[in-house]
Specification:
There is one protein chain. With 433 residues, the protein is α/β, with parallel strands linked by helices. 34% of the residues lie in helices and 17% in strands. The strands form six sheets. It has a six-stranded parallel beta sheet, sandwiched between helices. Strands 15-17-16 form a three-stranded antiparallel beta sheet. The protein has a two-stranded antiparallel ribbon with strand order 2-3. The chain is elongated and about 75 Å long.
């Protein structure tokens, strides 16, 4: 039995640009252990992972997916063709208009606007897995996938095509970062919004501050997911790219720290091997809860700004709040809804693991609700002291109060009556790297 991991870049990104910008998918495939499976001049080069270039980027001189034959790996402009009785000819000798520089620019434009190239990525991936199974005798039984933007939706489309070809014999696990199909593809194309029974686990992070209308994500209301699939949707403050970008070797923002560590932990849990873990490493539930506390404090401080700017308005066909991020919908994604303490259900699970007794005192349905008690030294030590982000965030939300050096806990002040339906953090998944 073999595991193949698939890294799907988003629009405007490929392996060169992803690594250069320390983007999450690029970081992951630059640290994966193994060999890349690919077609080289029609010949299978076996391996245990696949990298799919995103539509619309020629960074690093890498060919667009539209310019590469997904079955042979050859650039279309350099394949030989045969016309009737005429011997094979180099296509580029007579089809410059199809595959030349001008055509490349057009494909880059259509890749960015309409996702041209993601069909080829789906075909290429399934063809490679077929070749690994039947030409290389590799018993592929599991596929792990990670993708951002159109790359996340490409993961969904690949899962559907694998199910069409192999049935449930190949099991899939998908981690998607702000899955955006673009335009109306997320509604009109069935394979962008359906997860078959072969998908065992699906986790999606949804950016809360992206407002371009053409960037509507595949949220819970859009997705049709098999009943047997373990799933969780995680709202996260920030715009479309803020979950994935890095700088100077580390993730840029607290939410990017969380997303990167969680994606790595997810893939490792399902058997993908890496030569390291992302920096800064979040290797405990407490470290994750502290990072989430930074996110909550930034939210309360108004640091997350919605998408703006004239060009973004044009590209996005106008602005509008994402449906899942409205006050009316957030309660179905996370306990306490939009005005509560929890960023998402992963945050709640990490806090509960890290500070079990404090979680029960503040957020539980205690018979002592309404009482005020001094914060115990044990509670304060568990939180990392009075200056920790966790302590500051609980103070900012009013669950703790401070007079001088004295901290007082309000029993039951964070208790929520409602709970999200069918969206809790799955018990079997790791919470940290």
């Amino acid at each position: 039995m073999a595991i193949v991991t698939i890294f799907n870049h988003g629009t405007g990104y490929n392996r060169a640009k992803g690594v250069e910008n320390n983007e999450l998918v690029g970081w992951l495939h630059s640290h994966v252990i193994g060999e890349e499976a690919r077609m080289d001049d029609g010949r299978l080069v076996p391996g245990n992972f696949i990298i799919n270039e995103g539509p619309g980027s020629t960074a690093g001189g890498i060919a667009l997916p539209t310019n590469v034959n997904p079955m042979t790996g050859r650039e279309r402009g350099h394949e030989t063709v045969k016309l009737g009785k005429t011997p094979g000819q180099d296509r580029s000798a007579f089809a410059k208009g199809f595959a030349g520089e001008g055509a490349g620019k057009r494909w880059a434009l259509t890749g960015n606007i309409a996702g041209a190239g993601w069909d080829e990525n789906v075909q290429r991936t399934v063809h490679l897995i077929q070749a690994l199974k039947y030409d290389h005798d590799l018993d592929v039984t599991q596929v792990n996938m990670v993708g951002w933007s159109r790359g996340a939706v490409t993961s969904i489309r690949i899962a559907n095509k694998l199910y069409e070809v192999f049935g449930a014999s190949i099991r899939c696990n998908i981690f998607g970062l702000d899955p955006v199909a673009g335009q109306n593809a997320g509604v009109t194309m069935e394979d962008t919004r359906t997860l078959p029974e072969s998908v065992d686990t699906y986790v999606a992070i949804l950016s809360m501050n992206e407002e371009r209308r053409s960037f509507a994500p595949q949220d819970r209301d859009r997705m049709d997911i098999a009943a047997t699939t373990t799933r969780c949707f995680l709202p996260m403050p920030g715009k479309h790219s803020e979950q994935v970008m890095g700088t100077s070797g580390v993730a840029q923002t607290p939410e990017a720290h969380i997303s990167r560590n969680l994606a790595c932990a997810f893939l490792r849990h399902f058997g993908t091997r890496f030569d390291g873990i992302p920096a800064p490493a979040l290797t405990s539930a407490r470290a994750m809860a502290e990072a989430y506390a930074q996110v909550r404090l930034a939210t309360l401080g108004g640091q997350y700004k919605d998408t703006s700017g004239f060009m973004n308005r044009v590209i996005g066909l106008g602005f509008g709040r994402r449906d899942f991020a409205t006050t009316a919908k957030m309660g179905s994604y996370v306990a306490g809804g939009k005005g509560g303490y929890w960023v998402n259900e992963h945050h709640r699970a990490c806090f509960k693991d890290a500070y079990g007794e404090l979680y029960r005192d503040v957020f539980g349905d205690s018979a002592r609700r309404g009482q005020f008690i001094p914060l115990s030294p044990g509670h304060l030590a568990a939180l990392g002291g009075a200056q920790s982000h966790a302590t500051k965030s609980l103070l900012a939300m009013g669950y703790l109060t401070q007079e001088g050096h004295r901290l007082t806990l309000h029993i039951g002040s964070g208790h929520y009556v409602g709970r999200p339906a069918d969206n809790v953090w799955p018990a079997g998944l790791p919470k940290h790297t």
